[in-house]
Amino acid sequence: MSESDIILLLREILKWVKFIGWRHVKDVLADVLNTDRAKLIYHYSDGRSLREIADLLGISPETVRYYWKKWASLGIVDTVRVKGGGFRCIRMFSLEELGIEIPSLEEVKMQKKRGRPKKVKEEGEQRHEQ
Q1: What is the 3-state secondary structure (H, E, C) of the chain?
Q2: Fewer CB atoms inside 10 Å of the end CB: C or N, the chain?
């Protein structure tokens, strides 16, 4: 088997693995990303620092860190070490590609000001707010 044959075979395997896993991934993300805030943190976890994401959403860096640790344990983000001993998380899946709506950043910020998140905060998240 030539190298090009192996590459073609691997591409075919990858196509089927993605197809088989798509529904499961979507279900897991829909279950885990159960607030607009969580969806936005996940969406913006594209290599940005937790400080950048926290500032963008108007939340504490500890809240972002809380979610990143949770998602890393579930395997839905890649963890990358950065200079200074810290880490960043990069989402493994695009919400848009999975058909999961990305909420409006402005609406989430307004919900925070009004004090009315769309869903009840998860256990542990309340400690990390503000």
Answers
A1: CCHHHHHHHHHHHHHHHHHHHHHHHHHHHHHHCCCHHHHHHHHCCECCCHHHHHHHHCCCHHHHHHHHHHHHHHCCEEEEECCCCCEEEEECCCCCCCCCCCCCHHHHHHHHHHCCCCCCCCCCHHHHCC
A2: N
Instruction: Classify domain 3-128 by CATH number.
Output: 1.10.10
What is the distance between the alpha carbons of residues 129 and 58, in angstroms, rounded to a whole number?
10
Q: Give the pLDDT of the chain (130 residues) as one tens digit per residue.
A: 899 999 999 999 988 888 888 888 999 999 999 999 999 999 999 999 999 999 999 999 999 999 999 999 999 999 999 888 889 999 999 999 888 999 988 887 777 777 655 444 454 555 554 4
Q: Using CA atoms, how far apart are residues 78 and 22, in angstroms rounded to an integer?
A: 18
> Structure pTM?
0.75
Joined together, the tokens standing for residue 64 give 């972002």
Give the integer Cα–Cα distance in Å for 93 and 76: 7
